[in-house]
Design a protein that fits this description.
Elements lengths: L4 H12 L5 E5 L3 E7 L22 E7 L18 E4 L4 E4 L15 E2 L4 E7 L2 E6 L4 E6 L6 E2 L4 E7 L1
Antiparallel strand pairs: 1-2, 2-3, 4-11, 5-7, 5-10, 6-9, 7-8, 9-11
Length: 161
């Protein structure tokens, strides 16, 4: 059975909001161990590919599967060091627009100003507007609409004015 990383992200987000210190799930072809506290170490699958980490609170994730994760064919884009990253201040669900039938707050290539709402993070049924802390042009949106995000995860990058 292939690993559904979206379900793993949702499970990690749920665990992060509880007092659970350790969780271990095992199946015939999949094993997941989550530990909160102590030093965070990168999670590594049996084939050596880094899977996921949670920046805060520290979590150690170990996963093994008989099915190797998919390999991306395109190289990662070059990141300009002057770009400013807009990160998620919480665990939740990322939304690009205020409603499903409305246009996104911002698109790639659009200008943003300080204090402008760039997305919404839903956490515990509360909609939290995320505002830009920099004026500039949006160069990357790294999260898909409706995708779960972690604390500190980069949502988008802005080329400052």
């Amino acid at each position: 059975m292939p690993i559904d990383f979206q379900q793993v992200r949702e499970l990690l987000a749920a665990i992060a909001n509880t007092d659970i210190v350790e969780l271990q799930l095992k199946d015939d072809d999949f094993e997941l161990t989550v530990r909160k506290g102590g030093m965070a170490m990168p999670a590594v699958a049996s084939d050596g590919v880094q899977m996921a980490t949670m920046p805060s609170p520290p979590v150690v994730i170990q996963a093994a599967s008989s099915t190797p994760p998919p390999v991306e064919s395109s190289p990662p884009p070059t990141i300009d060091p002057k770009w400013v990253e807009i990160t998620s201040p919480m665990v939740g669900t990322f939304y690009r627009a205020p409603a499903p039938d409305e246009p996104p707050f911002v698109d790639i290539g659009e200008a943003v100003r300080v204090g402008q709402t760039v997305c919404i993070i839903e956490a515990m049924k509360l909609m939290n507007e995320i505002e830009s802390e920099v004026a500039g042009q949006v160069v990357e949106v790294l999260v898909a609409n409706g995708e779960s995000v972690e604390y500190g995860q980069v949502l988008m990058r802005v080329n400052p004015n």
